[in-house]
């Protein structure tokens, strides 16, 4: 079926998607065409409360006026700019983001999604330590790209694509003795979520998290905390790490970072300095459009104040 403005109905949109989609998504029987705040509307005009929040990416709501205005303004100025060239919107957002991250996290790598953030963090862990092993938790979810998928526990996600990257082991969540036995001199990083969300909601015990951090410090492994789902206020603090009094070495974040636009980032602790040039990269990561939208997450400065380089501190 050919879609035109005159034939926009739930059924016509569903039939068109089913004719051309890859098939990897189980389609619901509602074609969403508009959103405002916590509500969305289908093509037939029915209104719904959006309890999915676009898988956690729209926690400012749909079509937030400040985000829309920032996107419209920046789209008319400059949408893409590779990171080999500095950019005013990127500089402003990086300063605000690092000011808001847990204390000591002084640098960020900007990318496009949570899976990409985890993927990059796995590379950084190996690069920074010279080790290859990764210890992750059972029932954890970190993405579906090949590296992130190797650390994701659910066998039905992993098994069709094996062999994945080598050196990944899984241990029981909230069981410090198992993790203690798994972390060795070959472990580059321990990867955990502070609230597991795959198939339920399972917060980490405080003693467990403190123990994980201690074991990492003692054995030279990096502490990698996946805050893709828990970041940006979804646990009552800006970062779930703040509930536990820890600062990760690497912290992948994404979801609501840019008010619904595709964006991710990796927070990097200042003790690790800068990474060697050309060891990683991305075409679209840190583009001015998503940085302008992300800046509205904190009430970022407008473009006119970015030009004089007096970039405001974050207003959390």
Structure write-up:
By secondary structure, the chain is an alpha/beta fold. The protein is 32% helix and 16% strand. It contains 12 helices and 12 strands. Strands 6-5-7-10 form a 4-stranded parallel beta sheet, with helices on both faces. The protein has a 3-stranded antiparallel beta sheet with strand order 1-2-3, with no helix packed on it. Strand 1 and strand 2 form a beta hairpin. The longest helix has 16 residues, at 114-129. The protein is globular.
Determine the fraction of residues in helical runs and give it as a percent range: 25-40%
CATH class identity of the largest domain: Alpha Beta
Number of helices: 12
Q: Which class best fits the helix and strand makeup?
A: alpha/beta
Indicate the CATH topology of the largest domain.
Aspartate Aminotransferase, domain 2
Radius of gyration: 21 Å
**Count of structural domains:** 2
What shape does the CA trace take? globular
Strand order of the largest sheet: 6-5-7-10
The profile of the biggest β sheet is: 4 strands, parallel
Low-confidence stretches: 299-316
